[in-house]
Amino acid sequence: MVKRRSVALGLTGHGGCRKALPPMRFTFIHAADLHVDSPLAALGAKDRAVAERFAHAGRKAVENLVARALEEKAAFLIIAGDLFDGEWRDVSTGHFLARALGPLHRANIPVFIQRGNHDAASKIARDLPFAPSVRVFDDAAPQTFLLDHLGVALHGRSFGPRELPTDFVSTYPQARAHMLNIGVLHTSLSGDRGHDPYAPASIADLRAFGYDYWALGHVHAGEVLDREPWVVYPGNLQGRSVRETGAKGAVRVVVENGRIGEATHFACDAARWADETLDVSGCADEADIAAAAEALFAQAAREAEGRPLALRLRLSGVTPLHARLTAGRERLEDDLRFAAARHADDFWIERLRLATRAPQTRPAAGADALDVARLLAETAAEPDFAAEIAMLTAALVDKAPRLRDELSVLTREDWAAEARDLLIGALETGDAP
Amino acid sequence: MRFEELVLERYGHFTDRRLTFRPDAGLHVVLGANEAGKTTALAAISDLLFGFPHQTPYDFRHDGRSLRVGARATLRGGAQLVVRRRKGRDRTLVDADDAALPDDLLAPVLGAVTRTMFEAEFGLTAKALREGGHELARAGGRLSEALAASSAGMSALSRLRARFAGEADELFTPRRAASKPFYAALEVYSKADESLREALVTGEIWTAAVAAVKEAEDRSEAARAALEHLGADVARLERIGRVAGKLAALDAARAELATIATPALDAGGIGRARDALRRDETIAAQLARHDEDDAVDAAKRARLRLDPSLLARSDAIDRLRQRVGKIQEELNDLPRRQTSQREAAARLEETARKLGLADRAALAAAQPGEPALAQARALINDGRAVADRLDIARARLERARDDVARREREDGAPAHAVDPEPLQQRLALFDDLPGDYDLARRETSACEAVQKALDEAFAALAPRPATLDALAVAPLPDTTRIDAALRAFDRQSDAERDHAAAQAAADNAILAFDAEIARLAAGGASATRDDLLRLRGERDAALVAARDADDGGRGAAFAHLGGVARHLDLVTDVLLAAGERLTLLQNAAGRRAESERQTRDLAEAGRALAGQRDALVTQWRALWAPAGLTPLDPAAMAQWLERVARLLRRREELAQRRAALTAATARIAAMRGPLIGLCADLGAPAAPDEAPDLAHRRARAALAGAQKRWTELRARDAGRAAARDALDAAGKDVADAGSKLTAWRAAWPDAAAGIGLEAGADLTAAEAALTLWREAGELARDHSRWTQRVESMLRDIAEFEADVASLRVDGQAALAARPALDALEAIAGEVAAAREAAHHAQALDEAAQTRAAARAALGRDLTAARAEIAEARQRLDLAAAAPLAPALEAAARRLELDDAIRRLHADFTAEGRDEAALRAEADGVDRDALPARLAAGRADYKNLMQDIEAAGAALEAARSRRDDLARGHGAEAALARRVEAAGEVAAVARRYLLRAAAARLAARAVLRHRAAVGNPVIARASSLFGRATNGSFAGLVTDYDEHDRAVLAGRRADGTRVPMDGLSEATRDQLFLALRLALLETRAGEPLPFIGDDLLASFDDARAAQALDLLAASHVDQQVILFTHHAHLAALARGRDDARIEVIDL
User: Fold this and answer.
1) Are the C-beta atoms of B985 and B182 separated by less than 8 Å?
2) Cα Rg for chain B, rounded, in angstroms?
């Protein structure tokens, strides 16, 4: 396997096809992982209107994609897999997509769809009323669609209901001579991107086909992996949780004289997620933290460009404020939400996470009867106390079994430490009644 | 660490101020007046040890960067420490030359002590001391709480425990309560989940909807094609029917037109001539009526009576009549007004006599002014008020004396009661017990009932596995497959039902056709056109045979020909007579044959449906085979599956309820020991094996008694104080009222003289005089008003009579003898008659003028009409004697016929064909058979229209359903709401868990603290407490009560033990101080100075002296610095004559 070169999206470059193709310039759009109607993670937003706007973001992103293709007068649109979530059973989702792609048909912009692993498992992805100009790659064998007027050959193969053959990628055909060859492939490549492995391949494997552009899907983080040939993940269309941050959308590819000229990522998302870490080790108090957060919020709001924005703020660093922050976390979270709302209408702090640590102090020679912090730390470390937390957790899980996973994100020791810091913080701030 | 010197180099208002401490002194009393800098010095010690805060209030004189505070101190091991502190972010410890010292230089000295801890634990104010004493009281002697109360940090920790426990309980309790945010969020989640399930459009639902649309489209299309074909045929027949009559009408119109000889005249000419004839006749009649009216009106006018002179005075008479109402009213009122005038005069005379005056003239002269009356009235009121107030005050004084005496008799000696607050707090820990008992009782029987219901429901299941547990794990088909089977069976049933309906319809149609054929056949001799054609063929053959027959056979041949011809005539007659009936008969026969063919096709389809049903049943049974069940039909099994799902949910709920029941039982058992201990503390001991709920009730009752005693005691003390206060207040009121009465007596003589009374007149006489003077004024005003009114009325009546008399001058003698009002009424009657006659004459004159004008206009119209009549006669070419009217009628008929012919041609054009084409289309069509053919066609058309209408409605419904499903029911939004709801449940759970864990951690820490420091602190505090109480107590003692719980109590020198609630407030303060000092001494780290801030401000001298001794006797390593601004405390310290005590002036 050749060493992979990974470059950031948005850069332009030259390379790829060296064949003699008709002198013309056109643009196509490469998208993947639409996951239409896949729910966004819980926001905890008390404002119903904010939650509604986030809830509709997925569909709005699809509409944005279609609008951009129309605006660009794109020659065609490629969707490299995972139009839907596998387990989602509402048929109207498929009909929404079929309707949403309708304007492209009316504008004579064909759409080429590969079914991904989610689509293969999906019941709603079958028999959709797509317009005739929407073509879906076969799953029994690779299929090539030719656009003779553009000199383009699109090769692809959908995922089928059966298990993928181990040689899935190798069944793709060799490049057509005197054509611009585009491979449409839903793959995790070597599987090291945090996604389930599907259709494994290496860059070298792909290069061997002699294609000019590999339109990949499956990995939700957009990335240009290579330019000789172009190997591109556009990322998913709409971020769904704080694990999918930043601009989400598709890639606009310009073809000039039969060569890939540039591949530029553009945003389609209708709501945005951000996960920001603020080092508060230099902050003297909560006011300092709020001031630093305000600057961060201003930057995030600018980058969101008017979209609804959900931001998880993580406070880090070694600070003597650690326990106070723990004790006042909820209040601080509320304050930060107010602060965020000043920067944009739909700016919501999804959660305030504390990843701060108290400074290490040199332990005193012996136990000090006045040292409540030490007393609490020693008490929190008692095995019996961990058992008591387990009982508290069990009482909750007993009433709502789905909470088991949610509450087990933190260990008993974590909860003990949080309880300890909550008490120490309340003592330090004089918050005791 | 002991300070030997504290230097405020640049700090607050100090510059180079040094405080020197004697190394061998145990206690330093620093005396500084208010504003002398006592607080500043205290802050300086904290800033020295822990650094300046980011913002300091002590940089108002010296710039912040130049602030300096320093000290020289000796550590426990004898080492010397010299250090200075500047303000800054780091490296703020400096030496004498401002060179930086290590930041952690003081770390070995301070250990774990923070600024907050130092100020809270090593610093103590008088207020904190008093609150500490109260905290000890609330702890109620329990060792853990008492020890915690002695430390500010531990005390705060105890309060935090209560706070977080309360917050956690607000969020969640194991017992379900809709008001708890956790359960509210869980409910929202359940509803969101349900909404999602309702909103989902599954593939099966969609497939069924699409299939329904296709089926409906096919039906609709087939019906429309048949209708189009039939429609064209019916239209042709209808057109033939429509135009046949019109063609005949056209022929008739043309024939009549040929018979009319009168010349043509246009419609306008005919109309004008007819109008002129009518006008000529009408005008002659009107002229005759005018002549008659003139004669009648002239006779009426001659009979009228006119009186111009009377009419000339009518306006003056009307004005007089307008005054009649007023004059009549005054005549009526005058006697009553005159009586009132006389009565007012008499009452004035009476009032004058009552006031001792001669008459009403004297009364008027002596009438006092308003100021004199007001002054007298005010003094009378004041006099009565002062007297009343004095009486009331004296009565209150008497009652207050009685009340004080009664309370002193009844209350007797002071009583003692215990503050129930600590016990109440302990009892609150068991608040959940009744709920747990209730839950245990309720759930025990409920679980049994649910189990029984479960067993019964399971037994009622059909089909049914061996056990409920087996059912829980049986591989049952999912609802999707059940739904699919249900729909398949439904479709099958629909198809079978449709088939049966079609079969019945076909059978019914055959029966109907049979009946129709029978009815038509019974209507007369039957013959068909086929019979006609056949007989014509026979006739032609017989004719040929007769022509070709030889002589021998010719007779028979002609005889046969004759028979055939008669038969043919008969059939022809029948066909002609009943052409329509026979056509219908033929049509019915044909449609019956079609129905028979449909019946055969339906029978074949029925056999195919039966086969499909068998296959469905086989598949259906195979679906249930893995679960070992033989299913009923799908609808029943769908309900069965729902029942099973409910059954299994109830089984799961039962398991959860049993778990909750077990947990509640365990909690109840765990509360028994603590509850029995609480009962004992409340003075209501319970047996060791007493049930917890009984013990809980016992404890609540005992606590209620303690609260009642406490409340009564406090109420009694408050009552005593209030009674004494009331006695004092009543005495003051009596004295005040007496002085006011004296002042009034001095002012009274002048006021009495003002209303004509002697100085000695009493208040009753004065009030009577005041009343008479007020009445006299009102009576005088009444008398004057009546007098003016009577005079005015007499004047009005006289003027009226004079005006009426002036009307009689015209010699109306009869009127002169009558009263004025009657005479005026008679004259008015004559005026009205004269006015009516004048109006009538004027109307007659105007009518005559109108008729004259009309007569002239009628003459002009008559001339014009006769000219038009002459013109018409000329155009119609009439002889002089010929009448005009008949000629006009003939000309009009000619016009009508021309119009009818034009309309008929327009109708032909509207049919899309000309006259010739329509005649050709109708030619050869059997007009007799036309109605029957049209009736049959229309019947078929109507049936097809109904079919199309039904198919269209079904198609619309199917498409609407499909389109609705395609748009979705908002499942994606419902899913988002469910995700949000799940997030909210988790968020509430996290908030609860953190608070509950914190509350439990705090409780455990308090216990751990006691275990760690209990014994040494109590031992040292015991010694200090004995010294602080100057021997009143020998020390402290720790005991264990019968519940093996450690409690703290004071111990007298004779061994008597005094519980915590038996200590006075002052003694508790001393105990708190002893515990705090003992706690500080038992620390393992470097001792830090103990700083008192006006600590003894509220102590009397004796207790302050004891406290000074206590502080001086503190641990040998513990430096005690007591800041105060009370000079007497400094004097007291100096007066102790104790070398361990040093007094410093700030």
Assistant:
1) yes
2) 65
